[in-house]
What does this fold into?
Amino acid sequence: MNIALTGASGFIGSVIAKHAANHGYSVTALVRETSKREHIEPYVSRFVTGTHNNLEATEQLLEDADVVVHNS
It folds into this structure.
């Protein structure tokens, strides 16, 4: 199952990403260009850089998504 996750670089989002990855889910994370990613890199399959206000970034985030977790 593919999860589209916003807010992945924050505390709650990083816990969601870790939990999902540890249970076999594929996580695509929408992150801002200035967001730190090192702490979530092991758990995120694909990063999309941008914001949810950007149509192109949102479309990329939702590609192949089965579930959306909007945490931003």
Q: What stands out?
A: The longest strand covers residues 26-31. The chain has a mean pLDDT of 97. The helical segments are 11-22, 55-62.
